[in-house]
Design a protein that fits this description.
Elements lengths: L7 E5 L4 H11 L4 E5 L6 H4 L3 E2 L7 H10 L4 E5 L14 H5 L1 H8 L3 H14 L3 E2 L2 H4 L8 E3 L6 H17 L7 E5 L2 E5 L5 H9 L10 E4 L13 E2 L1 H9 L4 E5 L4 E2 L2 H10 L3 E5 L7
Parallel strand pairs: 1-2, 1-4, 2-3, 4-5, 9-11, 10-12, 11-13
Antiparallel strand pairs: 6-13, 7-8, 7-9
Helix pairs in contact: 5-6, 9-10
Length: 281
Amino acid sequence: MTSDEAPLAIVCGGGSLPFAVADAVQKRGRRAVLIPIHGWTDPKRVQAYTHHWIGLGQFGAACRHARSEGCRDMVFIGTLSRPRLSRLRFDLGTLRALPRIIAAYRGGDNHLLSGIAAAFEAQGFHLIGPHEVAPEILVPEGIFGRRAPGEIDRADIERGLGLIKAMGPYDVGQGVVVAGNHVLAVEAAEGTDRLLARVAELPNRGRSGGVLIKAPKPGQDWRFDLPSIGPQTVEGAAHAGLNGIAVLAGGTIMAEPQRVAALADERNLFVVGLRKPGPAE
């Protein structure tokens, strides 16, 4: 059996994306084996798939379950906050890989995920991006819903993209909020939902305009933690008084695109997939 014929192991965080990837893979005739993480993945939705639960830090158990199912390829997908080392429940396999894992913690999220991936690859697994097995989860170029960004919005988008590019060497988050050419907030370790909640608490927000811009960091490992949006992002943007959301097409994952478009119309926001710039841009 070749690698792409063997079952695919999907290490699952929270949200609906792990199930969207699993469904897409199985529609193509490949069996998906979910490895959900206690406290993050929806236990009711997991029941519909072959699955093996693990706790945070149970690297050895994840490898053991994937190997027992005959998996060679592995995908990481879903929301998961960066845990403290002291909160991890180490098993024997984790203890063996502990020096590598501790070294991975000494950096940003991209450094951490690439380090953990290297630990899995040292056990013989091939780590791939979810978009490689389910390309339909990527945002296409164009507008979702009826509203399009205006001239001021487009200027805010350009400023936000420039800021994400400038922050890339520091392995900082993939999202910024810009309003009237003024940077309101930069995504850090808290994630997009809390970023938007923080913007909503700024003085005199109301419906004051602005755009959430999301794009991969320059030099990012595209196998892990591509920027993502979904219905909750639209709700958060509306609550923060923003005009809309702009993301890099082909480099951002979208959960429930039809619901995103419907919510954008209900909240009178724009959601747009931006053309990926060429090498000279």
